[in-house]
Amino acid sequence: MKILVLHRVPYFKIEYHRGISHDLHDVTYFGTDTALATLPPGLRCERVSRPGARPAFEEARDWLAEEPRAFDRVISMSEYELLDAARLREHLGVPGAPVDQVALARDKVLMKRAVEEAGLRVPRFLPLPSFLRLGGRAPWNGRTVLKPHRGASSEDVLVYATPREAAAAVTEGRTGVARLDGPDGPDGPDAGPAREDFQVEEFVAGPIRHFDGLVQNGEVLALTASEYLGTCLEYAQGRPMGSFQIGFSAETRAWVSRALAAVRIEDGTFHLEAIVQAGDPDGELVFLEVGNRVGGADVVATFELATGIHLPSYELRVLLGEPVAGTFPEPDADRLRYAWFVHPGHHLAGREYRGLEGAGAFRSGPRVVTWHELPPGAPLPDHITYQAGETVLAGIVAGDTPEETREWMAALFGSLSVATRPAAAPLTPPLVPETPEQVPA
User: Fold this and answer.
1) In three state form, how does the secondary structure of 121-180 look?
2) How far is CA 46 from CA 4, 49, 198, 222, in A?
3) Matching CATH number, 2-96, of 3.40.50.720, 1.10.220.10, 3.40.50.20, 1.25.40.10
4) pTM of the model
């Protein structure tokens, strides 16, 4: 089989060799030089570099126009290029999910409409242009979330006290989001297109859970449930977060299946988030969003620790059309609960990092599975990241119960603080006279 991979996610995050036999198949990786540099040196494959100045679909289409060739599969493991892969499949006539199907799991307005039509609860919402045409009136009162249709990691997500406050911030160009406020103000030439990319929704209070797993031909084959400690939005604002695995019922599994069916996620991995509404005696789940991809941070690692299943490997087999039901390894007999945790550093970018304080009592504890701490003096990230080696701290902890892992993380978060100091000004080189006349007398 000839396989084209739109390569964006670093290789070590996917480990393609675990899901694709590179001896049996002819695999071409199409990506920027930075992405291609993450491929193992001895991997049998073709590497094709792209500039990265335009969408992957456009650059792949132009490359194939100059060097025509056929592929049996076109794959992307990055949520940012799932639509590019779908467009390229349609352009080449290659099997796989079409654009309209993939869009349901990428656009938060489309997915909420579909889930609501399937009879599941969603937060009330409005596309931003519709909301503004209503003068900031919404079918809810109280806290209001402004966020992109296709964002990730809670970038450009804001919470306002009321719908009217959200509307005023947008119309007056003071959201702090560059593409909404724009260099020319709220009525500048780019304001209209940018607003099309945003929505508002009611803020639903309650614990947020995420469900991760694998689906093939519309059947959920593997599933774990976890609950966040902290939120992605709080992490974006500079606070630590994590999630710990919990149990789930047959009813919850059925709910997940209904949500996936509503957005037509039929093959591959999924990362689905929902809210247990505070004060709801029945604990009904409120759908938040879903992606046809693996979760970030250490979701893949904790899933494999709990189930023995490496999600990206099995997703690749599913995307190649291989049946995977009945091929899963036996889970560890210990049946421990796992949690991942991260501490941000992006909010301190530009300062000199001096180290993490308050971690000593936790760093080498018996529950710790992995611990990746940024060394003092290392550069702080200038963007939101959950990646070990980039953010201040990332790790995994294990416990016998969800309560144990949650309490351990809560204690860790309460103890940690990041030590920084203003970055030293760069040394100015001494002035070297260009001619003798410049030397003072």
Assistant:
1) CCCCEEEHHHHHHCCCCCCCCCCEEEEECCCCCCCCCEEECCHHHHHHHHHCCCCCCHHH
2) 9, 10, 39, 32
3) 3.40.50.20
4) 0.90
Q: How confident is the model at residue 277 (pLDDT cuts 50, 70, 90)?
A: confident
Condensed to tens digits (0 to 9), the pLDDT of residues 199-240 reads: 999 999 999 999 999 999 999 999 999 999 999 889 999 999
Q: What is the pLDDT confidence band of residue 328, given thresholds at 50, 70 and 90?
A: very high
Task: Take residue 349 and report the two structure tokens written for it.
Answer: 């970018």
Cα angle: 160, vertex 161, 164; to 5 degrees: 80
Q: Has residue 188 got a pLDDT over 60?
A: no
Cα-Cα-Cα-Cα dihedral of 242, 246, 248, 253, to 10°? 30
8 A C-beta contact, residue 18 and residue 37: no
Q: What amino acid is encoded at 180 in this protein?
A: L
Q: Tokens 């609860």 belong to which residue?
A: 121
- With contact defined as beta carbons under 8 Å apart, do 343 and 418 qualify? yes
Q: What is the DSSP string of 16-63?
A: GGGTS-TTTSEEEEEE-HHHHTTS-TT--SEEEE---SS-HHHHHHHH
Q: Which residues of 171-206 are buried (b: 16+ CB within 10 A; e: fewer)?
A: bebebebeebbbeeebeeeebeebbebbbbbbebee
Task: With CA atoms as reference, report the closest residue to 14 among 295, 279, 312, 238.
Answer: 312
HSE, CB side, 13 Å, CA atoms: give it for residue 169.
19
Is 208-422 in CATH node 3.30.470.20? yes
- Consecutive H or E run containing 181: helix 178-181
Write down the domain spans for the chain: 2-96, 124-202, 208-422
Distance between CA atoms of residues 389 and 184, nearest Å: 38
pLDDT tens digit string along 334-346?
Answer: 789 999 999 999 9
Note whether 418 and 392 are within 8 A (CB).
yes
Give the separation between CA 158 and CA 148, rounded to whole angstroms: 10
Residue 335 DSSP symbol: -
The rounded distance, in Å, linking the Cα atoms of 389 and 267 is 31
Eight-class DSSP state of 280: -
CA dihedral of residues 325, 328, 334, 338 (deg, nearest 10): -90
* Residue 167 CB-density burial (10 A; 0-12 exposed, 13-18 middle, 19+ buried): buried
